[in-house]
Write a structure and sequence with these properties.
118 residues
Length: 118
């Protein structure tokens, strides 16, 4: 697994980003489904909601709750194209390449795994 400590430390300095954590219900959901299923959900959310050049409902496509990946997306600034541009330099108006999508999934899953270990 990659070392994301610097990125997590940077996000932790944000009052908004640092308030997101998995609830007990989220932890039970992850444990019940398994990390492989959560990774699959995550990849699907990134591919359909963020990767298109101009995603529908951009800025409102990621709910604040309802799935552990949604919380991870907000905690990691991977929730909309504005946040991706501001925090990670992902250009707006261009489709996100598959390799970059995979990197986002890996990062979000690392956050979820850290939360599960808390």
């Amino acid at each position: 697994m990659k070392n994301y400590d610097a990125a997590f430390a940077r996000l932790g300095k944000s009052k908004f980003r640092s308030r997101f954590h998995l609830s007990q219900a989220d932890r039970e959901y992850v444990a019940g489904k398994g990390l492989a299923a959560i990774r699959s959900h995550c990849a699907d959310f990134i591919r359909t909601r963020l990767a298109p050049a101009n995603p529908p409902n951009d800025g409102r496509q990621t709910p604040m709750r309802g799935h552990p990946v949604f919380k991870a997306q907000h905690a990691c600034a991977c929730c909309c194209r504005d946040c991706l541009a501001k925090w990670w330099g992902v250009p707006r108006g261009r489709e996100i390449p598959a390799a970059r999508q995979q990197g986002m999934v890996d990062f979000l899953m690392a956050w979820i795994e850290r939360e599960m270990a808390r």
